[in-house]
Design brief:
Length: 261
């Protein structure tokens, strides 16, 4: 842990649930910053912009700004600019993230690319069938993430990954994923902090998309037993996390070498 210079932190399920801070999270983040470590909040949240997320977290007591946050929509915009410049894009998403999709040409008809964000009421039959039609006519499929569910104050809720699988199977295509668990997402976060993978640590509640994906990118992975964590997902995971702790509040002790392993 002495080599750690930067900490990548998932938000939903790690720092907050339904945007309410988890016990000890505010204090733990403050302690990490006071230790001089770089911090990047990396999230697949697609319902809010970076500025909106920063405002909500600041109101909850977290000392963060929009510059500390990397979202799946912002990474998606960069990916489209590099690989699909000028493409006409249809967006299926719950929430207004247009601000983080700067430069993306969003259209309602005849898209070149279908972008799937986070699930909500918008993911009804008509919208999914319309996206299916675009894919049949040759549109490419981009997914901001593959999350099957997330935790709210009302319990686990379905996310867009559950619908994405159906679109892929029906349209006989495979989505390009731009958010976690894509390697490009972690590379962008590391570049923002200016640290190497061997100097970074990723904290998340999703053993596959957060922790094991980070470990495949060379980043030390830390799984927390909060948010969407379920014992069975850990038992059935494709690998083992480097560390498992009860909550983000335990991270400072782990960094000092005196916490859970």
């Amino acid at each position: 842990m002495e080599s750690v210079r930067g900490v990548l932190i998932d938000i939903d399920g790690v720092l907050t649930v339904s945007w309410q801070p988890l016990p000890g999270a505010v204090e733990a983040l403050r302690e990490i910053r006071e230790a001089g470590l770089g911090v990047a909040l990396v999230t697949n949240t697609t319902s809010r912009t970076r500025a909106s997320i920063a405002g909500v977290l600041a109101d909850a007591g977290f000392a963060v700004s929009a510059e500390d946050i990397l979202t799946a929509p912002s990474v998606t915009a960069a990916h489209l600019a590099e690989h699909f410049p000028g493409a006409r894009c249809a967006l299926l998403n719950s929430g207004d993230v247009a601000e983080d999709l700067e430069g993306v040409d969003l259209v309602d008809e005849a898209p070149d690319v279908v972008i799937v964000g986070g699930a909500g009421e918008e993911f009804g039959y008509a919208a999914l069938n319309r996206a299916f039609g675009y894919l049949q006519r040759g549109a490419r499929l981009i997914a901001m993430h593959r999350n099957l569910y997330w935790r709210t104050e009302d319990g686990l809720q379905l996310d867009s990954g559950a619908f994405l699988v159906g679109l892929e199977r029906a349209a006989r295509t495979e989505a390009e994923v731009t958010g976690k668990p894509s390697a490009a997402f972690f590379e962008a976060a590391l570049a923002r902090l200016g640290v190497g993978a061997d100097q970074a640590l990723m904290v998340g509640d999703d053993v596959e998309s957060d922790v094991l994906a980070a470990q495949r990118a060379g980043v030390t992975g830390v799984l927390v037993r909060t948010g969407k964590f379920l014992p069975e997902t850990l038992r059935e995971a494709s690998g083992r996390p480097d560390h498992v702790i009860d909550s983000f509040a335990d991270l400072p002790a782990l960094l000092r070498g005196s916490g859970q392993q």
